[in-house]
Amino acid sequence: MVTGLRSPALRHVLTHLITPLLMCIGMGLAYMGAFVTPEPNHLPVAVVGSGPEVKVFAQSVKDEAGDKLDVRTVASRAEAVDLLKSRDITGAYIPSSKAPELVVATAASDMGATAVEKVFTPVAAQQNLPLKVTDVAPPAADDPTGQGLFFLLIALSIGSYASVAALGAAGGELPMRARALLAVGISGAVSVIGTLLAGPVFHLADHDLASVWGMSWLYSAGILFIGVGLHTFLKRWTTLAMMVLFVMLNFTSSGGLFRPELQNGFFGTLHAFWNGAGFVEGVRGLLYFDGDGLSGNLWTLVVWLLVGLLVTAVAGAVERGRARGHVRPKPLDEAEEAEEELEESVAV
C-alpha cells in the first residue's frame, strides 16, 4: 500500500483531484450561502399617503420589521410607481379602509415582490380586508418568473469560460495575438447564440435584440480575455480561477434569482460591480424599465472588458519576454493534456 502511494502516477492523480474538490467546496459555500436562506435585508418599500396617521403606520411597520425593511412614505400612487420603475423600491402599500393595495414590479424581482406581499398581506388581514396586488412591470409572457435572464447569463458564462479551457488546452502554442483574435471571434459566436436563445427561441426579449447582443458580447469578451490572460500565469489552475470569478461569485451576486436586498451584505456588495450583475440588470432595465440604469451597467461590462484586455496584454508581454530569453513553456505532456480535458468537462 505504501509503495502504491509513492507511485508517481498515483501522486499525479491525487494532485489533480485537488481542483474538483476545491470546486465542490467553493460551489457549496457560494450557492448555499447565497440561495438557501434568502431573507429581506433592508428591503426598500414605501407606504403611500400623507399626514400623521400614515407616518405613524409606516413607522410601526419599520419597527416591527427591524433591519429587514427600509420604509419610506410617498405622497401619491404615481410617485410610488415611478420609484418602482426606477427600481428604488420593491413594493408600495396603499392603506385603505375599504380596499388596501400593494403595487409591485415583478420584472425587477419576482422573489422581491413575493417577499413584500408576505409583509403586507397580514397587515390587510388585520382589517379583515383582502389585499389587492397590482403588478406595474410584469415580465414577458414566456418568462413568468422573470428568471430567464439568469439562465441566459449561465449559458453565456459556460460558453465563455469553457472556451478559455479549450484555448488553454489546444491553443497554448499559438501566439497571444492569435489567441486574442480567437477570443474576439468566440465571444461573437457566444453572444449571437445567447441573443438567439433570448429572442426567437425562448422569447425572453421581444425588442432591442441588437442591444442584447451588444451586452452579451461585452460580457463574454470580458470573461474570455481575462481567462486567456490568466492562463499564461496560472496554467492548470486557470479553470478553478474562472469558476471562482464567473460562477461562484458571479451567479450568486447577479440578482438573477434574488436581488441583493434578499441576500447578505457580501453578495449585495458584489452586486454593485460584478460583471454578471451588470449584464442581468442592464438587460432587465433595457427590456422592462425603459433603459433605467443602463449606462451604469454598460460601464460595468466595459470596465471588466478593459481589465481583460490589460491582463491579456501583460500576459503577451511576459510570453514575448520568455521567448526572447529562450525560456519557452514546457509542452503539455499526455497527462497534462488529459487534465486540461478533464477540467474543461468539469467546467461545462
The whole-number mean of residue pLDDT values reads 87
What strand line-up does the widest sheet have? 2-1-3-4-5
Compute the number of helices: 15
Major β-sheet annotation: 5 strands, mixed
Indicate the radius of gyration in whole angstroms: 24 Å
Helix content: 55-70%
- Strand-pairing-aware structural class: alpha/beta
Portion in beta strands: 5-15%
Q: In total, how many beta strands?
A: 5
Detail the poorly predicted runs: 330-335, 344-348
Order of helices and strands: HHHEHEHEEHEHHHHHHHHH
What is the approximate shape?
elongated
Intertermini distance: 35 Å
Can you walk through the features of this model?
The chain has 348 residues and is of the alpha/beta class. It contains 15 helices and five strands. The protein has helices spanning 2-5, 8-16, 18-35, 52-65, 77-85, 110-125, 148-170, 176-201, 209-234, 238-248, 250-253, 265-271, 275-288, 294-324, 334-347, and strands at 43-48, 69-74, 91-94, 101-104, 132-135. It has a five-stranded mixed β-sheet, with helices on both faces. Helix 9 (209-234) packs antiparallel against helix 10 (238-248) and helix 9 packs antiparallel against helix 13 (275-288).
